[in-house]
Amino acid sequence: MKYKILLLEDDMMLSETVAEHLQKEGYEVVSVYDGESAIDILYEKSFDLLLLDVKVPALNGFEVLKEYRERKSGAPAIFITSLNSIEDLERGFGSGADDYIKKPFELKELSIRVKSLLKRGFLKKATQNIELKDGLIFDLESSMLKSGDKEIKIQDKEMRLLKIFLKKRGEVVTHEEIRNSLWDFDEE
What we know:
- With 188 residues, the chain is of the alpha/beta class.
- The protein is 40% helix and 20% strand.
- The chain is built from 7 helices and 9 strands.
- It has a 5-stranded parallel sheet, with helices on both faces. Strands 6-7-8-9 form a 4-stranded antiparallel sheet, with no helix packed on it.
- The longest helix is centred in the first third of the chain and has 13 residues, at 12-24.
- The two termini are 21 Å apart.
């Protein structure tokens, strides 16, 4: 399963460069260029990580993330921005950011930060392998269900559902959370 990343960046060249770099590293990247488009696609699809510029047309990146977090959506978010005052940093983390990278940045630094957040994204307290009933083990890194040395194939939607339940162990999972995580807007 490929991790899905939303990239909000209005500089077309930077957006293309970052998207190409992340795609070469095996990520699926969806690029948008303004805040309203970001909000629209966040309602339509689920993402594993958000990369958000702040100074974009329509809603700024801070407002996009704040609205996304108010829906209790927990995908990690990294701001990529030229804003560099301590107040901007405070506002970024206050709106729900997990990390903050100041422009210009090295693509390798971005990769390191993305990988780090995705590694702990779904289950922040969990180990790499989660033991389930009857000797079943779920490997978070590979998204593989195993019984001993045997891999058990399950479909993508079932895999996503299992991750949701593992992420929210001991909590109530709403129909809306499941729907937003499993189905894209245009799916039945």
